[in-house]
Amino acid sequence: MTLGGQAGGQADGRTAGQQGQSEPAPRHLSDGPSARPPVLVLVNPQDIVNIASAVRIARNFGIERMRLVNPEAFDPYRIEGIAHNSAEFVERIEILPSLEAAIADCVFVAVLTARARTAKRRTVRPRAAAAELVVHAGRGPVAIVAGREDRGLTNAELDLGHLLVTIPTDPRNSSLNLAQAIAVMAYESWLARGGESLPIKPHRHLAEPATAGQLEALFGDWHRALWAIDFFKTRRSESVMRSFREIVHRAELDGREAALVRAMGIEVVRYLGRVGAPVAAEPPAGERD
Fold first, then answer.
1. What's the rounded mean pLDDT across residues 163-180?
2. Which domains does the chain possess?
3. CA quadruple 159, 165, 168, 169: dihedral positive or negative?
4. Which one of 11, 91, 208, 221 is at 20 to 30 Å from 71 when CA atoms are compared?
5. Model confidence at 5, in pLDDT bands (50, 70, 90)?
6. Cβ neighbours of 281 (radius 10 Å)
């Protein structure tokens, strides 16, 4: 945690951990987007749970720096207890006396608000704001600012931003809590910085596609199973099996899946034999249908 009179300043800053550790370590490209992430600024947060939620959200979406303006409650131990494995991040949180000080080094500031304003201020949705943050991040630090849980930001604080951001919600239930609003904006910022390009992890144990031989064995065993339960008593076996083949082919089974489905058909016949149930005999090939 850093206490100081102005963000980014060195003169009167004090850290709870290592001295001078206000900038995070360089990010590897494989860790996520390489574009500069925004600074997350919370003005006068009142609930330690909301601060902890914001910490977790920031870490989820690659935000590496957080600044708090006059928080009413701040307890690193409790925050780390809610947002697990966040000690290093919490240690870097900066505490500032005013919003002016918190954004003093920023070249662009996007301010979250739920209030409609009569003044002519540019207001956009989170996705558009996230794109602008990425553009301006090439020139210097940028920030996302969120206000108090109960009353948001004052007009004077809103005036400090370059851009107002509103999140569209159902007018009948329009209120978002602080953490929800931060999550929406942080997510859009992550996507705008390239987060969506990260590949989805493949299945741990990929199996080879089912072979034609495996599928024919599956069809044969299920053909016998359906005869055993007299399924073809009022149905043409040829038409049913043709449809069954199409269903299985559309599913594009792998080898393990084909073996499982085949085992189900085999077990139908075995179960009937174990319980002594009458089993309909499969007619010779030339006498079917």
1. 92
2. 2-197 (3.40.1280.10), 212-287 (no CATH)
3. negative
4. 11
5. low
6. 9
